[in-house]
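Example (one chain per record):
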Amino acid sequence: MARDLLPLVQRALGDKYAIERQIGRGGAARVYLARDPAGRKLALKVLHPELKVSVMADRFLREIRLVAQLHHPLIVPVIDSGEQDWLVYFVMPFVEGLTLRETLDRERTLSIDATRRLGSELLDALACAHESGIVHRDVKPANIVMSEAGAVLLDFGIARAVAASGRDLLTQSGMTVGTSAYMSPEQVTAEADLDQRSDLYAVGCVLFECLAGRPPFLGANENIVLQKHMHEAAPDVRTLRPDTPPAVATAIARALRKPRPERWQTAAAMRDALKG
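Predicted structure:
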């Protein structure tokens, strides 16, 4: 059983935040519900202790602080970060609402209009980040909150920060940064020059799942899925969701092409294509 870090986190950061309980666990961090002195709800994220073997804290925090410079209504900002008692942490406002993962688990698919709206909102947020040279690297349903304001993208730059602060050690240990169902071919092979087209591939995977009720690639284990991302052409979403408009199917298909030059080159171009 994973070690319960809550008492340690409370001892280390209790003077700054009232930390209530663990509310999630992702690939890079555990997430705690916390409150600041004014009572505002926060998501306090603590890097997994095992990652500290591979990640240099100062470089990780430097990368995280770059994300704090992003300003977009659908990007959750980093409002605090640091290292205390060997814990590397960062803090974001808590966003109310179900994640897209929770929504799809409950409803299986979204309507065509809802999928188009989701795609447009995600791509608008990504366009803002890409213009600042920041690639998300882990766009997936669990990192999207269906809030009243729209589809809010969480954990911007967290995967980038992990990769940038521990690239050599992560590569030596065989670790990848990302989530298998949504990883671009170049991410699977841990290429160093990931750019915005990797995020657009992930958006294609997410939108495919919203319409089809499953990601484009399935397999008995993670390695099979990763191999399919590298070598197998994505199915036409219309084979699983026949009422998908041609413009939407084409936008998704182009996002999922293997060679980067054949994909959408910018988030804005893909967003415009989704509109038909």
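Caption: The chain has two domains: 6-93, 98-274.
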